[in-house]
Amino acid sequence: MRRVVWRNLLAHKVRLALSGLAVVLGVAFVAGTLVFTDTLERTFTALFESTTADVDVSAERAFEPTGAPGGAPPQPLDAALAGQIAAVDGVASATGYVQSPGVYVIGPDGKVVATGGAPGIGTGWDPAEGLGMTLTAGRAPAARDEVVLDEATAERTGYGIGDTVELLTPGPRLSATVVGTLRFGESGGLAGASLVAFDTATAQELLAAPGTFHGVSVQAADGVGREELAERVDAALGEGLAVATREEASEKRTEQLAESLGFIDVFLLVFAGIALFVGSFIILNTFSMLVAQRTRELALLRALGASRRQVTGSVLAEALVLAVLGSTAGLLLGLAVAAGLRWAFGRVGLTLDGSLVVAPRTVVAAYAVGVLVTVLAAYLPARRAAKVPPVAALRDDHAMPDGSLRRRTRAGAVLGVAGGTALVAGTALDDAPATLVLLGSLALVVAAIALSPVLARPFLRVAGAALPRIWGPAGRLARENALRNPRRTAATASALMVGVALVTGFSIIGQSANASIGSAVAERMRSDFIVSSAVTQPFSPQVAEEVRGLDGVASVGVARLGFVELDGEPTMLFGVDETTGDDVFALDVIAGQGGAPADGQLLVDADLARDRGWEVGETVAVRGVNGEQRELELRGIYETAPSVGPALLPLATLGELGGEPLDRWVFVQLAEGAGAGAVREAVEAVVADHPIVSVKDMGEFVQEQQGQVAQLLMIINAMLVLSVLIAVLGIVNTLALSVLERTREVGLLRAVGMARRQLRRTIRLEAVLIALFGAVLGLGLGLVFGVGLVSVLDGQGIDELAVPGGRLAVLLAVSALVGVLAAAWPAHRASRMPVLRALATAQ
Amino acid sequence: MNPVQETSTTGPARTASAVAARAESLTKVYGRGEARVVALDAVDVAFPRGAFTAIMGPSGSGKSTLMHCMAGLDAATSGRAWIGDVELSGLGDARLTALRRDSVGFVFQSFNLLPTLTAAENITLPLDLAGRRVEQEWLDTVIDAVGLQGRLSHRPSELSGGQQQRVACARALAGRPEIVFADEPTGNLDSRSGADVLRFLRSSVREMGQTVVMVTHDPVAASYADEVLFLADGRVVDSLAAPSADGVLERMKALDPRGGA
Q1: Residue ranges per domain, chain A?
Q2: Which residues form the ABC transporter domain (chain B) (predicted)?
Q3: Alpha-carbon gap: B18 to the closest alpha carbon of chain A (Å)
């Protein structure tokens, strides 16, 4: 039997290579994701471990704010603390340091040097060693207008020692001379972040407050272990301070980072899953076809005494070999994928250093996934192979028995009804869990796959009705060939269906999100101009200050982002001043009073109030990241509005609770009679000093917000292209195998006078029909998902349903094109077949 | 006789000449060096219009190769071949395809029909491929002659082997080709179905004025022809007019002393 397996593999190299490609791509994504994640983590771990302080002391956070872009701001410590720690037995030295995000380098082109979402870090030079900094050129900063840049930033901007560099800080914009370059840690990798070191006094002034630090870096005396030292320091200090050994500090920060980058993992693994799911159809199809083609051969084996198990085993053994080869290739391709991702991240500023990390887990996962999927997909055809009656070897025209579709139809119908019911229930009922909708959607996908062979016949008849009229015999043959084996057509189309359904669903969600953002912003915010950064970076309050003094400006409102605990639950919310609360946010107040919360008050939205059972006038306990506590009176409850967030605090209160003293939004209202154009010019002149922010009117602001959604959608769709790519492979595979199967037919057609062009057209039209079938099924499913998900997301920022009809039409057209592309190679092969040899091919 | 018509390869080719197809020093060599096999050795042959010619010979005598080369299915190594007035050598694939479609009819040993098309669609396939209009009167004559009136909407899987082969014969004749090449048309049929097919081929020649060339190794089949050509080692070695099955068998025995056909 083993010899049979090998001979078959060798005889069907091309076909197996094609179906193996599906395994390769799926495994490559799994492996690539894992390798990239490990590399990312290694980079960050190395980054954090670069800090060589034995023990780090910082202000304890009351809680860890989650989801904060760029992390929560550091809390200041009294400078006297360093002396206190230095006195602890076993401490060799204790140096206060200042280190905070919010310092950006402006490149020679006048633009902020991109950090790819990583923070622009400002720091005091002392203690350089404790903070992991090594001087590589020049000298340490010694005056207010001197700085040291990290090597990567210096290289990227071209700034050298002696050059003047412009810096954005949380305070004023600054002009300084580069006096040196530094390397961070061993490798110098900062994962995209930029690092600017000031002399300590300047750092305190810019980033903290004179006489305060963000932490104390402690070195142990000889013979004192870190843990022991940490314990001693902890015992010597009072409440409210976090004491961490180097390992603990590194671990904690890595964890935070992993959490904030975790979405990349999830994202990539989801696509790996899709790739494998789609790929399994191709494998199933290939083996089905190979088994069907080898009916006589398998029957001969049975006639010669092979048992059913041996026949099944031989097919599965072939699948296993394919799986191992495919997984190996996939693993290698995965390295390329990871390298590609690293390159792509590098392009946006997030540089990862060193070689790729291939953990044993990655290898195990790649093989496990590849082998499992392949063998599972080959199991059904293998079982079918065993059912070939030995007598088939003696007959000329035995076709593989195709089981009745009845059972499949019944199962599909039941699943479809169940899925549909779940979906409707999930969207109609207010309190239904979102998982109900997801389960319903999943059931519908499986139902669609099960029913697709049944649906294929009517679809192909109708869709193909016009083909004979337009393309004559080529059109008729194409339609008949597609109809010949509805299971095969359906399985081929299913691969495309999944991809199209996902793209459709996401397009609907995206379009709905855009429409919702547009109306939400337009309804909830009233401002003539908005100053904000496009990448949600906070910026200096100086901007608002300067704008306030301009002619023609009636009032200026600001909003800041903050994290507090409301009755014990961490919440991300806005702090607003009076102008913003009273004039800019147009809240739909449903209880109590609207407008700006006065000192000692807060406003919450309807969802939050309902969840917690709060009523107007009630007292809400609020705790800041710095541990400060306040009791605030609930002033009013407003209709939930995503653009405003779940709660509003007075600006001053948020500041007391440890909120960063940086603005997110500045709203500018025109004075009566002031020229909008002139005021805008004046505001733009102010903003010119702050390259990360820009001025926009409401229309532009809405567009910018929508642009973020569009960008996200683009990334998602770009990834989904992969599943479409695999679907193309599937169509190529099916067609190539079909052409091989019909070699004699092709020969006959050519002999009786079918031109090569006509033959190619026949195959192309068949491919287009299959692709359109998949696309139409996918569009239908995608519409159901999209509409279902939008109704679930109602109240979470997406409350309007919008179907991008144009884009879906394009999707359909692209699918047809996919068919044409997929047919290119099989059609070429078929048209090049020598007529005589094709005619002589054994059936 | 037919009037002189156009000889283009895109329309029905019809010439007044008495020869439907001919070859001059047609040679076909396979392989090289020690594996060199001369399948056709400078064959000169002409198939008269309106005649039923059978080609016989032992296995490996080159009879199938001769047919393939003369039908434009295979390229000869050297020599020339014509269908009507059109010379095959030097024609590209597109023109050869068009020539096969318009001027040649084929009947093969097995697997003659497209399983996805009905009998009627199979019959008109070459015409459809060419985009030519079906001459309904002629088509009816052909279908009557093969006796398939009631079976036109059936798919091949619903027809017997003999019926399938008769559909194939009808297809070969549907376009009024210059010449019909039949490659062992009865090879896969029982003797009764085979006789039906042979009678039809003969009547197409006698009554409809068609030209048929048939490759066979069955002396009974050959006896339906007007003339039998005998091939051995790539050469035409003999011929027999108005053959009988016994007469053919005698000649065959003389060609191959081992008696194998």
Answers
A1: 50-258, 454-526+697-843, 529-694
A2: 21-258
A3: 24
